[in-house]
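Moderator note: this is an archived Q&A kept for reference. The question asked for a predicted structure of one protein chain; the sequence and the answer are reproduced below.
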Amino acid sequence: MSGATVWFSGTNIGTTTNEEGYFFLRSPKMENSVIASFVGYKKRETKLDKSRRDQMIEIYLKEEHNVLDEIFVSPNKAEIARILKLFNQNRNKNNPKNFSGFELENQSVTKLYLSNIRQKWLQKKVFSELKNGILTLEDSTLIMPIHQNITNKNEKYLSEKTEINPIFSDEKTVELFGKEQLNLILNAYIPQANFYDNSILMFGKKFVSPTSKQGNLYYNYFLDTVYIDSVKNYEIHFHPKNNKNLTFDGKMWLDAKTFALTKVIVSLPKNANINYVNSFSVEHNFAKIDTTKYFYNSVNQNVSFNYNFTFDKNQNYTSAILTQQSDYKNFRLCESEILLKTENDVTISDEQKTFGAAIDTINSAKIQKIAYALVDIFMNGYIHAGIVDFGNVANFLRYNALEGFRPTLSLRTSEKLNKNFTLGGYIGYGFGDKKGKYGGEFQARFGKKREHQIGLFYDNDVVRFGYGDALLLNENMSSGENILTSFSWGQGYKQVFQQQKIDLKYLFEKRGVRFTFNAKAAQVFSNQFIDFQQNNRQINDVKIIAATAGLRLSFKENSIDNFFHRFYLNSPYPVLNLQGEIGFCEVGEFRFVENGKITLPYAKIKITLKQSVVFPLGKFNYAVEGAKIFGNVPYILLESPTTIRGLWYNSYNFDLVNQGEFLADSYISAHLKYYSNGLIFNNIPYVKVLNLRETAFVNFAWGGVFNPHEKVLQMPLHKSLQMPYIEAGVGITNILRFLSVESVWRITHRDEMKWGIRCKVYLDF
């Protein structure tokens, strides 16, 4: 609120808030409270914490309705409903994303910085070298710049597409994340809002727009009529009926003739059920580009992030502040399909130069390099030591029934040696089986955007049965066995085996399309947990040669391309995987060479489809998987429902299926899960402050063994999926903002197990 009066109670020390509602007060002695006042709102007194000298508070004022009657012309609800109905009738015509036939310049500035830095921290020796990179704002707040991006570009809006011509770019980033990585994350989770939409996608969640056709279910509206530049506007104030829901608090202005938006100012309700976001505000200003159309004139978004260990958002924690400002100017009607070139007229202000210089200073500090190493270990799993990377660190120690505890040393050449290839390997020792394990790899990337990748891998390792294609659905899951997957409490998973394998891989990937080809030769050895028998005769090993081709299709999906590792960001659109495999094997007397001729005893096709559908009441995840095997194969190549691995959450698995419990050569499965935004808990007094959320899910698998695979290898005891396996459950998530506890029931196959409880780590906004 701009222009509110704020003062220390019982003193004449006071001030007024700036355009964004911020204020700063200082007193030579400890004061009891702060009072805030604004015309049309109830005066509010806020107690201060006398145990702290410096503190940051947020003050929320309530409208005083007996005064509002003197300010607002408040017609009945029918009049507001009429105006919103006319807005909806003209929604598509007025929506800027539907405009074409013009071009403009877009100048934008994005800043990210840490706020509320403590002066006493900088007195510590370990942080002292950061002093030159710390800036002081006008209100004496200390900040640490993290990222600044200044761009100028021409945008041409055509009927079929939008053409963008970059004119100028200046970017500075503290080297914790790559520049491109940070921009991708910001664009994926904090895109520019469009208030013509019924819902606004932010932080991977859908907020109900104040212009939504169902807005009256979520908002209370108040109406006034004002004139802006001699043009009559409807000024509509809106407030959430339940401030725990994902809604906004603010006001908007509509042209009274066209019912187009001319201005929007919104903020996030203080108690909204969202994690890690302390505050969020947006302001959109529109300008006419012809007699009826309003396009963006300026867009400002501000977000404050932190992790409060309490549920009081007024606590004075260090916050990460993100500001995004875009200005649109020099509108021109298109006279041709050619984008006009514009000379760069962007000047970097002294304040922006100082901000960028501070980032350079921080990048040269030793503490920053330590912080970069820690962040990189957490994000990518590697410790950098010059031209060598040690890792993945999660693989340094692991445990399984066959090997017992196994330490491993793994390393590879780093980006510092060459960005386009890496050479690495690992060596480990299992104290249980008293055997050494080792492997090596070579990978190279090429192409203009390094879209091609080849790799040669050799592994003499122990792997878990039933996880061969798990990454098709759980793509960001850690591959292989490591300390994160070593323990799955309450579930049997002893079926692990040692294999020697050589892989030759090719990958082509650009946004939306990934093609892979993999040729492998493997030798799998039996042990006390996975027994190979043929005609009641013990078999030592199984040899497999196979070729696999895969196609992955996605739509408008962003990903972070690290050094030979890709991390896919959340997308609201489906992701489709198609995979085909042909191969042959040698198992005792059953060989892939007969009478001097090579046969192809098996083939497999597999399809997966997954999507996360976000809507204002929560999020619905679904995944469907189907597979068919042709020919006879050793049972280790059959399909099996993917079971849970460790405490860390994987989206698509079966909670109460033991490893290898079911086997099939024809198989379909489905995972359906709903995450609420606190549908029930948001309405329970006292409980709602915990920001708990509900979950409900169903997992389904159906298939069977239809080919005589016993000819190849005797199959272990298993259950048939011809009676579908179904499990369902409900749970509570967002406990302390990172834990999920779920109760799971077996609906079918209840002979051995009927019920279980799962505790998982689950992070979400």
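Archived answer notes: Residues 548 and 581 are 4 Å apart (CA to CA).
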